[in-house]
Amino acid sequence: SLLSADETNDTTDMPEVATVVEILPAPPSNGCIPPAIIQFPSPVINQEARRHGGVIIHILVATYMFIGLAIVCDDYFVPALTRVSDAMNLSPDVAGATFMAAGSSAPELATSVIGVFVAKDDIGVSGVVGSAVFNITLVIGVCALSAKHAITLNWYSCCRDCLCYLICIIVLICTIADRVVSWPEATFFLVLYVLYCVAMGFNSQFEAWAVKTLPVPDSWRSAGAEKGDCLNGNIEGKETETSATGDGTLEVKLTPQDGAKEINGEEYEDPLRKPLLLDDGRWAVFSWYVCLPLTILTVYTVPDCRKKEYSRMFVLSFFCSVFWICLYSYIMVWMITIIGFTFGIPDTVMGLTFIAAGVSVPDALSGIAVVKEGHGDMAVSNAIGSNVFDILVCLGIPWFIQTAIKDPGSVVLVQHKGILYSTFTLFSTVIFLIGASHMNGWKMDRKYGIILIIWYFVVMIFASLYETNILGHFNPDECPSEV
């Protein structure tokens, strides 16, 4: 009877092993893993030619795809999502946490989907982790350097966003600790994001409770008192009008109390209009010519819902934008994979650095724009809040589709152990942000920005050392290939 029980257990275990093998083939006997480049179409330029300068073409194409993503997201995808949130009568907090965050993080979501279903490696996870580090350190640091004067931050907004972000980091670490992602774990990611959106709807009640109850240092409360007039909508005799913007931030328009409010309206500029050399400068003219092919593609294939005649076509604009985002992201990840393979750089390192930086550039530009208007809290909240979307949605959706819809009961494997250690470094970025804010008196100034930028490079250096096995053998080697 004991023998038959063992045989029964062996037979019941076989289907689970077969399911895992279907998703990610077991590595060869020598311990290496197949390179991600074999999952994409074969490069036109062979490896020898790429090593002798041909890789520059792939670098230019990848950079061009970053520009294409920025154009589609900023000019078409985000306005379409803005129309959707307006049609649903969502509050600014909820709209910023849902549709607006989706707009600024669409490239990360597309990259993560490609990593799970096409590249079949950890480039999606590494891209999300790298983007999170980029947003919370480099983006906020550059925004601080761009501020025209020292800006006082609201301690509650920063701590609220950091707390939600810490919860996401803990959930991510617990999920990938065993290097296996199952459908209940993927479902929990999505449920947690829904709860986050619901909580954002009660933000004012939470803030009132926190300000009265939490035992924070007096320096934090004094910094919050300086922001009190702004929060009460009274800035030097001016009243504020708040609205959700396309990048997930809240836009505050200042109007004199004795004057009439201006009617909100989006100014539309024809992207095909050539800038004038004398008025706009040579760089504007050069940039217009560089972006012209991408601009023509989108202008004639995506209805611009910012224009009055297309204002009701926001749903069609949404789906057309999604098509171009997916196409550009696929080509971008393909080129980045070829570049990394040519130089012998692991895909995860490319995801942590180049892909993360490329997809986060729109967040940086939008953050700089609001900081120049004096809204430092908006830049910080947008940078940290987009990380919550990146972790819970950009990873949760592809994992859920793979484990619950495409192949129910299967799992997604995390190949590189080093990505777990890189995720642990996210803790340091959050703690360092709170610590730097406290030590600097919650002032966003030049010193604050320089400290965060230095910390970004420190974190990236250690993360790259983990991924390249310099600090220990954390990751399997890639099998040789002549692609």
Description:
It contains 18 helices and seven strands. Helix 5 packs antiparallel against helix 18, helix 6 packs antiparallel against helix 17 and helix 14 runs antiparallel to helix 18. The longest helix is centred in the first third of the chain and has 41 residues. The protein is globular and about 65 Å long. The N and C termini lie far apart (54 Å).
Major beta sheet summary = 3 strands, antiparallel
Could you tell me the radius of gyration in angstroms?
24 Å
Into which percent range does the helicity of residues fall? 55-70%
The proportion of strand residues reads: under 5%
Structural class: mainly alpha
Q: Write the H/E string, N to C.
A: HHHHHEHEHHHHEEEHHHHHHEHEH
Report the average pLDDT across residues: 78
Strand order of the largest sheet: 3-4-5
Number of helices: 18
Shape: globular
Low-confidence segments, given as residue ranges, are 1-8, 15-29, 229-266
What is the rounded distance between the termini?
54 Å
Per DSSP E runs of 2 or more residues, the count of β-strands stands at: 7
Fold blueprint:
Blueprint: H1 2-23, H2 47-87, H3 92-104, H4 106-119, H5 123-146, E1 151-152, H6 155-176, E2 180-181, H7 183-201, H8 203-213, H9 218-226, H10 228-231, E3 234-235, E4 238-244, E5 250-256, H11 277-280, H12 282-301, H13 314-343, H14 347-372, H15 376-394, H16 396-406, E6 412-413, H17 418-439, E7 443-444, H18 446-467
Antiparallel strand pairs: 1-7, 2-6, 3-4, 4-5
Helix pairs in contact: 2-3, 2-12, 2-13, 2-14, 3-7, 3-15, 4-5, 4-13, 4-16, 5-14, 5-15, 5-17, 5-18, 6-15, 6-17, 7-15, 7-16, 13-14, 14-15, 14-18, 17-18
